[in-house]
Amino acid sequence: MFSITSCFEDLDDNLVITGDVKDFIWKGMNYFYIYGNDVPNLRNETFGISGLANRYDTTQEYEEFLSGFSSPEELFDALVFDAGNTDRFSTIFPDLFQAIDLFNGTSETNGMRRLFGFQINGNGPFYVRVGLVLNGSNADLAGVERNMIISGVDGTAFTSENAQSLLSQSSMTLNFADYNDNGTEDTSDDSVTPNGQTATVTREVFTDNPVHRTEVITTNGETIGYIMYNSFRDNFETELNNAFAQLQAANVEHLVLDLRYNGGGAIVTAARLATMISGESPNQVFSKAFFGPNRLEQNRDFNFDNTISSGAAVNTLNFEKVYVLTTGASASASELIINSLRPYIDVVQIGDITTGKTTINTLVFDSPDFSTQQVTNAHTYAMLPLIGDSTNKDEELVPPTGLVPDIILEETFVNLGTLGDPNEPLLARAIMEITNADRFTHPNPSNSNNLLPLKLTTNTESLIDGYMYIK
Prior knowledge:
This protein is α+β, with helices and mostly antiparallel strands. The protein has 12 helices and 24 strands.
């Protein structure tokens, strides 16, 4: 669905013009929204109109209601139920083409993701540690790496108040520093010292491969496969399948799946990844979807899938146990993998409590049936409302408070480690569990503060973090 050429092949001459973008917003929310019965102004009986069944119908009362809102965004916000609490994940896009790009992993970015702010012992100067750099991005090519500490930008030192704005610039020179723990676990004697090193990074249009790292680790007589996977996107399923082929060829005996920064994605891709891990039959239910009040008859099952989107057969490890690394940024489809695999195989979760999102979104367009066919040329709005809940085969939901790890271990500002390195704290803990070796030496410092993820307001790549969707 999220391909410009296939979605809008009739863009020039077969588009349908509707009268008002606000009409599209109300009817789309009425038809799809999971909380439709909880919003009085969205109920079918309110205006005598029912979403798709009366796609272009209107009444005087309905038109007066729409005219009371000064913008499409104002109307959309008024139709979201308990925004920020019950519904944290419905959103609207003024530019549907930007939305499509985001779901394909394309955005304007310098490549630095998961930036963590911290102050030693909660006071003093403010610093930022780099959590993730996208492979092949501008920042990667400039030499920026995970675990580096940034003390400021363009010679201006960070404070907790200015860090977001400084790091949101289109082009900037990063000023780096060194962290010294003085050889102790106690952070009270730690220090950060500017080292004079710099790197200039620039935002550019970039498409990220979510298969961030694949490693084969041999230790204590065990062969362990490691995959860091950052988004469930079907346009990169071939790359994911190839990573599993690499692990197959290495005859790995165990798998560590790193989803610590994976905010979700497509349910169908999650089902295919689950098949790659477990080898379950496509006759088996991976997940059940339960939709909103106007779509109850469309409730459906998602089965395990032995082919990827290209039609190629999945490469499967046929494992009965998997180790999954998580943080508070692990959301939606990442949580679905854990919840939906557990009825079939042993899933050992290591890290921090996940986001707690079990709901499903879909991208809704202004067309006769809200699909990508015959989209209006009267505006470019699209919506991404919550449309349903996703459970495992036993109809168990991911708790809204998140999935609690079997082994709790938080990332801290003291040392993030190198992703895929056996000594990186979360991976080291998984290896310890696999090998039964008493070699884990990365406890959480007793008095360290948790990392503080920076929410960069101009980073468009953050707009779909936490979403699980049906195309």
